[in-house]
Amino acid sequence: xxxxxxxxxxxxxxxxxxxxxxxxxxxxxxxxxxPSGKRSPYSAASGWEIAIKAGLGKLILKxxxxxxxxxxxxxxxxxxxxxxxxxxxxxVHRLPLLHRDPFDRMIIAQAQVExxxxxxxxxxxxxxxxxxxx
Length: 134
Hints:
By secondary structure, the chain is an alpha/beta fold. The chain has helices at residues 8-17, 29-33, 44-55, 66-76, 86-91, 102-114, and strands at 3-6, 40-43, 79-82, 116-119, 132-133. The protein has six helices and five strands, in the order E-H-H-E-H-H-E-H-H-E-E. The chain has one domain: Rossmann fold, CATH 3.40.50.1010. The radius of gyration is 14 Å and the shape is globular. Strands 1-4-5 form a three-stranded parallel β-sheet. Strands 2-3 form a two-stranded parallel ribbon. The model is unreliable at 8-26 (pLDDT under 50).
């Protein structure tokens, strides 16, 4: 079974609609994508994009500082940050230009390099050779 990698589209849609990380997948696939006994990884690229959106005023937090809020949500939801490493960054070069979003492309590269499933509803991501779940 592959490890799960949460992508920004699923997380941000949960943020906008309800509480952060609170929208479960419709078919329960997240539990299948989550590694047994391990925390689910969450790409640092997603954190970077969330920080940019918050800085631009496109993502409003109910209370608190973004760093504290994200750390709390990662802990509550049993999620571990997945850092962007050089092999992830260089792998982006191998991806066909099917999708121009640099954050999504980094998440796709991480998933391919680390053999992970991406939890997302984004149909653009599904066009790449990567396993997705929602």
